[in-house]
Structures are given as structure tokens and as C-alpha cells.
Amino acid sequence: MILPVAKLGTLALRTICKPIAARLKKDAGLHPKFRQCIINIAQANHRFTTNMQRRIYGRATDVEIRPLDEEKAVHAAADLLGELFVFTVAGAAVIFEVQRSSRSEARKEELRNQELQDEWTLKSTVQEVHSFYHVALKQRDEDLAREVELLKHKLEELEQLTKGQGLGSLFSFKLAHGHATENGKASTQLIQTKSNTK
């Protein structure tokens, strides 16, 4: 939306510049000091362009250049001022357009850089979380492995103890445990019969 408006504004400015340049041409001949100044500008421009043309065509440049008469000089200077004004406005419009475009590109580049930075930060965070969980899982595996080794060691100690005492002690433990269970059942039954008889 802003691009067509800016282009239309530039075109309107160029169109407005042409009448302003024509007005400058007309007013240039009316003020004496300004008239003399533009006559000097026109004569200098005439000398410069004539020398350039002679050099391009390979003619002698040391020949004296005949100055323009006053009316031709005023007309040429007024044309030069008008064209210079139009050119200045057009150049300013182009510079404005280029700066606006470069600011827009800089904004886009900044957004791209921000997106890349955010993406990099996200990847970095994901990698940190992944490595944290990886370390935590590895630590848990190591803890479980130590616990398994400890249980294996305790089992080996129990096996050593049972080998030293023989199988009889294991059976006596089972029998003692069995007798205790039977005694417990008998006492429970006795208590129940006493309560039933009351």
C-alpha cells in the first residue's frame, strides 16, 4: 500500500517541478543581480560545453570562445536552472526511495536474524534438555547397576553362610518356622473355642 502512494507522490512532485522550473526561468530575467549571476553561470557553462565538444571532435581548444549574447545567456541559464531543479527533485526522490527500500531490507534482515537466533536458542535448549536427560538416565542406570552388584554380593554372602552351616541349618530354620506357624494356629483355635464356650 505504501509503495504505490510513494511512487505516485514522486510522480506528482516531478510534475509540479516543471511549472516551478518555468517560473524560475521567467523570474530569472527580472532581477538585475540574479540576472547577472545567471549570465555568468550561462557563460561558464557555454565555455565548458564548447571545450568539451572541441576535445571530443579533436579540434583546437586554445581558440578563443565567443561569449553568448545577454538574452541567449539568460535563456540558457534559465533552462539550466529549471533542469537543475527538476533533476535535484528527481534525485532527492530516488535517494528517498533507495533509503526507504534499504530500511525495509534491513528490517527484513533483522527479522531473519532474529528468527535464526530464536531457532538456534531453541535447538540449544533442546540439546541441553536432551543431554540432561541422557546424563540422568545414565546416572540411574549406573545406580541400578551398583544396586544389582550389591544384591549379588549379599546373595553370595548368604550362599557362603549357608554353605558353611550346611543344609541342616536351612532345614532347621524351615522346620522352626513351620512349628511356629503351627503353634500360632493352635493357639488361635484355642482362643476361639474359649470365646465360643463363654
Structure characterization notes:
With 198 residues, the chain is an all-alpha fold. It is built from 3 helices and no strands. The protein is rod-shaped, with a radius of gyration of 54 Å. The chain starts with a helix and ends with a helix.
Strand content: under 5%
What is the H/E order?
HHH
β-strand number:
0
Distance between the termini: 105 Å
Helix/strand-derived category reads: mainly alpha
Count of helical regions: 3
Q: Name the helicity range.
A: over 70%
What form results from the Cα inertia axes?
rod-shaped
Regions with pLDDT < 50 over 5+ consecutive residues? 173-177
Mean pLDDT: 76
Cα-atom radius of gyration: 54 Å
Largest sheet: none
Summarize the structure.
By secondary structure, the protein is mostly helical.
